[in-house]
Structure formats: C-alpha cells, structure tokens
Amino acid sequence: MREPRIDIDGPGGNTRLGYTYTDGTNHKFSSSIVLAGRIAPEQVGALAAKLAPGGEFVPRDVGMSMLQLVANSFWHPSDHAWHTLDTIETTTDAPTHDGDLAAMLDRWSAVEDWDDEGAVAALEEQLGPEDEDEDDEAAMPSPTP
To answer: Where are the domains of the chain?
Structure first.
C-alpha cells in the first residue's frame, strides 16, 4: 500500500492534508487543506487505516474537494473518483478548510466503504460528458420547462 509522507514533528498547531488526483490519461492535480488542530501519531494511524489499497480515498466522502471539479471541464469515461493521500503534516499556516481536525477525523472514522460510485455519478452530473453529440439524447442537457 502506498503510504502518505508524514511529518508531524514540525512546528505549528494545525494540520495539512495533501492529496492528488491522477486522471485516466495520467495527468496529476494536487491540492491540500489546512485544518485547525495538531494531529497526533495515533490519529495519523487512524487516517491511514481507512485508506483503500494504494493509499487512495474519495474526498467527497469526508467533505474535501474532488479535484476533478478544479482540473477538468468535462467528465471522461476513463476518469474515476479515487485520490491519493500524499502528505500529513503539521503546519503554522492558517486553516483553509471549514471545520477542524476533530471534525475531519470524525468523518474519516465514519467511513465504512468509500463511495466511489456515488462520487462518479455526482461528477458525471456536475461535469457532463466530454463531447455532446446532437444525436445522443443522454448526452444532451434536459430542456428547461
């Protein structure tokens, strides 16, 4: 299993989670969030234990942004919902995410199975298909009444 880089010995009372989305054509998009609160070693273990094989997770399930929404203007059939957790580190940076570390840990703890299918359905709806073919009614947006 791919493990995130962990640096929780540094200064600061906040925690940064860095993560990456790699699309179906191997383009990578990375981001991070800073949460109020300093992570403890046992909390790092709790996060890592919830990762799927390959160190992956579905950000939507824990209230984090799906990077496809930032990186892509369309949904491609080769895309997926999985992101890798790259880093867990302490920081002096100000929080950038609503909620604090305790709330994020609660969301991670509540995950029994990552809902990649639900995330894909939501992304397909939000991003739409790559190409809209006039003859393909499924790809066309619904007419407004």
So the answer is: 5-110
Q: What SS3 class is residue 90?
A: strand
CA 93, chain centre distance (Å): 20
Q: What are the pLDDT digits (tens) for 31-69? A: 999 999 999 999 999 999 999 988 899 999 999 999 988
State how beta strands 5-7 and 83-91 pair: parallel
User: Whole-model pTM above 0.90?
Assistant: no
108-134: pLDDT as tens digits: 999 999 999 999 899 888 887 665 543
In whole angstroms, give the CA distance from residue 145 to residue 51. Answer: 44
Quick one: which of 1, 29, 31, 36 has its CA closest to 15? 36
